[in-house]
Amino acid sequence: MEEGRIIKALSGFYYVKTEDGSIYQCRGRGVFRNQNITPLVGDLVTFEYEDPNEGYIMQIKPRSNELVRPPIANITQAIIVTSAKAPDFNETLLDRFLVLIESRDIQPVIFITKMDLTSAAEKEKMESYRKLYENIGYRTELLSMKDGQGFNVLEHYFKDHITVIAGQSGVGKSSILNMLDDSLDLKTGEISESLGRGRHTTRHVELLEMYNGLVADTPGFSSLEFDTLEANELSYCFPEFRERLGDCKFRGCMHLKEPKCAVKAAVSTGEIAASRYGNYVRFLEEIMLRKPRY
């Protein structure tokens, strides 16, 4: 019995890479279908094989997390790519990504791209955003997309991580990967002027080796709905709220109208950004208005 990680899924075959770098083409056992289990890219598995093109996955080890879109497991890091311009920086959208990533116990990193398109005033504004998110504890990079300027500073982010890249269309997700490794030649959709969106054409999921880590070649979090997050879980997805939860007067405080709320007190003193609190309230309303699932 061998052990390895699924690094690609294509047409019912799973490509399993072992510690020595060998890759085996495997199928899933019928028992997985009967148990309604689908092997995912990123899964740690045990398998048997007769030759490198004829293997069978025997067991899937417990997952630390999984995504539906793209179907991938055991992610340790999500790089959220957002742009300063074209499309314009959107703090609410960034916070939405952060909450979704935090809710899956994945470590977020923020890349703000297209700094080369900004005016002096816009640069200053982006620097203030960088400071805001770094104070919360998020590693944040401001990037010029011109000739991949300064991209070598990003290499250390990938080491020993399984990374998924997330962000709205047109912000430069594929461009970043291509600049980091020009052998990838990932297809980048031109921004459609009428829609203000990009198009991504990847049809299968694969983990690519990059700087002693693995990166999914398909953008993550295509759904931005809070469809599995409960109202009482939301404050745990804001690190600056999370560290104050024990200081609220009431256990289970929702940080809305309750007296002696440590989160609201921190907002009033500026320790928590008003914009972050505003997005928390907006997201909480959205979750509370969600239709019940049966």
Automatic annotation (TrEMBL):
GO CC terms, sorted: cytoplasm
Required cofactor names: Zn(2+)
Single annotated GO MF: rRNA binding
Localization terms from the record: Cytoplasm
UniProt keyword annotation of Glycoprotein present: no
UniProt enzyme class: hydrolase
Residues bound to GTP: T113, K114, M115, D116, G167, Q168, S169, G170, V171, G172, K173, S174, S175
InterPro entries according to UniProt: G_CP_dom, NA-bd_OB-fold, P-loop_NTPase, Ribosome_biogen_GTPase_RsgA, RsgA_GTPase_dom, RsgA_N
Residue sites binding Zn(2+) per the record: C248, C253, H255, C261
Co-factor remark: Binds 1 zinc ion per subunit.
GO biological process: ribosomal small subunit biogenesis
EC number: 3.6.1.-
Keyword Cytoplasm on entry: yes
Key words of the record: Cytoplasm, GTP-binding, Hydrolase, Metal-binding, Nucleotide-binding, Ribosome biogenesis, RNA-binding, rRNA-binding, Zinc
Domain CP-type G residue range list: 64-224
Ranges in coiled-coil conformation: none
CDD domains: S1_YloQ_GTPase, YjeQ_EngC
Residue ranges of domain EngC GTPase in the record: 73-222
Location, primary (coarse class): cytoplasm
Family, per entry: Belongs to the TRAFAC class YlqF/YawG GTPase family. RsgA subfamily.
Function: One of several proteins that assist in the late maturation steps of the functional core of the 30S ribosomal subunit. Helps release RbfA from mature subunits. May play a role in the assembly of ribosomal proteins into the subunit. Circularly permuted GTPase that catalyzes slow GTP hydrolysis, GTPase activity is stimulated by the 30S ribosomal subunit.
Subunit structure: Monomer. Associates with 30S ribosomal subunit, binds 16S rRNA.
Record HAMAP family: GTPase_RsgA (MF_01820)
Name by which UniProt lists this protein: Small ribosomal subunit biogenesis GTPase RsgA
Organism, scientific name: Oceanobacillus indicireducens
Gene responsible for this protein: rsgA
